[in-house]
Amino acid sequence: MTNVNAIYINGLGNLSPQKTTDSSRFLDEVNRVQSNRLACIEPNYRDFISPDILRRMGRLIKMGIASSRICLEDAGCKMPDAIITGTGLGCMEDTEKFLTTMVRNKEELLTPTSFIQSTHNTVSAQIALLLKCHNYNFTYVHRGWSFESALLDAMIQLRNGRASTVLAGGMDELTNGSFEITRRLGHWRTKPADTFDLLKTTARGSIAGEGSAFFLLSSAPGDNTYAVLSGLHTFNRKASPFALPRILNEFLERSGTSPGEIDLAVCGFNGDTSSAGPYKELTGSLNSAGIAAWKHLSGEYMTSSAFALWMSSMIIKNQRVPEAAVIRAPGSGAIKTILIYNHYLDLNHSFILIRKP
Amino acid sequence: MGIRVVITGYGIVSSIGMDAGEVLRSLLDGISGIGEITRFDTIHKGKLPLAEVRRSNAELLEHLGLKNKKKYSRTSLLGMAAARQAAEMAGIKPGQSLRTGLISANTVGGMDRTEDFYPLFLENQSKGRISEVATHDCGDSTEKIAEYLGVRDFITTISTACSSSANAVMLASEMIKAGLIDRVIAGGTDAVTRFTLNGFNTLMILDKTGCRPFDEERAGLTIGEGAAFLVLESEELAIREGREIIGLVSGYGNANDAYHQTASSPEGIGAGLAMAKALEMGCIEPAAVSYINVHGTGTQNNDLSEGIAVQKLFVDTVPPFSSTKSYTGHTLGAAGAIEAVISLLSVQNGCIFPNLRWATPMKELYIRPVTSLLRNIPVEHVLSNSFGFGGNNSSLLLSKYNSR
After folding, report:
1. Do A145 and B180 touch (CB under 8 A)?
2. CA dihedral sign of residues A291, A297, A302, A304
């Protein structure tokens, strides 16, 4: 791949159940919990949003604005050429609030705020509004491919030259209602799981999570470049035949990489034994690569691959895998190439490839 | 010159017809789909109109040859019906070797079923039929449509409020130009729900008499439902495969108004930028545009803002324009695609469909919409506007196909 097409990750902003908002620290202290759900460690939003608008603002919007602000500042970017977000479920708190009032009040005496904020594009719209950014603005809402779609669009906009900087992010919030519904659908551990034991114990179900992570992607390197985004692929379980090594090899070939070059595979192991198969198959075919995981730190949610891209970018920049994330330590050489592999409910699979700049 | 993206198929389901033929007949005959609420129980029945698709879910299932009613939201059923027509017109069949994608759009996913589930769930969180809420997320209908048509190579869903499906056409075109995919079925679907009806009602922007776009007395929009999809591919591929080319996606623009979460700026900044970008990409002078299918919701705010943006961009060469939401209602996430199909019908049939229920010019504007059918006129370039909450403004430039 030529440098003409290189896409640089020049800024990060990550709000998660871990202390991830300060880029000078990298998971050196883990928020260890015993639970089947994780909640974001939220900053003082007044540091990011003026009190008059903060008061009525939905939680996911606040999370999105804070993390996008951190990202823009980290990259030293004031006005991106595009804002592209991905969210599996959007502003759930406001959606539930409007639905609840509508049902309880039998459609009477309703107020518009939660309806307005329930729209899936509210996060990217509010970021644009606060920045007074009239540029390209998009929101993707496709389950485990929501964030990947945002990244894909960012790559297209950068490569066709219509944008030289793109603010791209993935975010989802966990509410009591959405937790309860997904619990009934069998997504979560029935007993509380320990952060450090989740990936070691064998049981059905994962732990629920949430987060909002933003990236400033650019066609030029910056003072603070973390990594180069060099490949992205989404694929379907229904692809026939579902031959993971073949799909991986074709993807790596298109991205100008060979399997032997992968130093670390960051995989979406989530503690649910029924979902581990594809990850084991992939890591089994990459003998020389280290393995890391993130969902015991972030929880499982539709856009958790955004947390994975944050973690992987930090690994490249810091040249170390945080102890809490290691499954199999990488070799002693430099960590130059990282493959992120995630799947959501074995339906939406994705590869993201990043490299040392 | 770069790769040109052409249209080789389309499908539409709306309150004015279950396919393009029926829709065209209604458009020509001036028959609107706006009427009484019949889909669900609501306190607004008899007071507020809707533009409903005149088929029950059971009828849609039968129409599609499906049985498992627990599996599909109405959003999915409408989407499958429209996408199937588009795929058939373009000759898309499962198992072909071309890389085929589905890019769909909607605003409230399977909310039509979630709101049936919710009352019991609110009483007791262990109650409510869980299958009713498993189709809630916006991606569900896209997965169902893809499964129904056997599309596997690329699938995603866009939600940018009422500009969603215009953006689906935009992403599809970008992916084809970048060589990431061979052909895409792109569009959107949305079903009427109590959630959106009550939501827009709290904003007091629903016209009790049915929407009257660009009329001085306009009092809001009318919510509609439906779905539409276009099949897009590169010109080279369409020619090689010997397909009939229906039209050209010659430009598109996406901009953000960045003015207010729901209201449009008085100067129509975002609307003007989106239209200008579309014309610029198509290398088309404003004067060359034959027709604007305006967003024209019928709210005080939209029509004024959009009208001012049109006047500013076109000055003394404002082309004929109309809002076909006066026929279909505002179909939210499906609107961009439904109006793209209507724009193609305009190009193909050399006619411009009137803006219904218009009587009085807006005092702030010097332009007024087309109010009676224009026939036998050359329609070369149509600009189709779609604007949404969050200032998400998009404009598509669709043109008559001419080989280079």
Report:
1. no
2. negative
